[in-house]
Design goal:
With 101 residues, this protein is mostly helical. It is 50% helix and 4% strand. Helix 2 runs antiparallel to helix 3. The longest helix is centred in the first third of the chain and has 16 residues.
């Protein structure tokens, strides 16, 4: 099990990324727009830099929904390899059959 603080920090980052998603997209589009003046594009980049760092989606870490493990995760299932094996052995993941011999 991961540290509770690491999981909570990641949840806070997800909430911030969700809250600032539209604002960041608008500022990024304005900064990349070649038809705007250089001063307008620069001001858009300055405003983008003033936003909280944790509001960026790249700072969100993919963690297992069951254990909070940060590594060895399957994106589609949001489970770590260890949790997937345990749940698969118990027959709780539809369509997954754990082979044994």
């Amino acid at each position: 099990m991961a540290k509770k603080s690491s999981i909570e920090n990641n949840n806070r980052r997800m909430r911030l990324a969700k809250r600032y998603k539209e604002k960041r997209a608008a500022l990024k589009a304005l900064a990349a727009d070649e038809s705007k003046s250089a001063e307008e594009r620069f001001l858009a980049r300055v405003k983008l830099a003033e936003l909280p760092r944790n509001s960026s989606l790249t700072r969100v870490r993919l963690r297992c929904e069951v254990s909070g493990r940060p590594r060895g995760n399957y994106r589609k299932l949001k489970l770590s390899r260890i949790a997937l094996r345990d749940l698969g052995s118990k027959g709780m993941v539809p369509g997954l059959v754990k082979s044994s011999w």
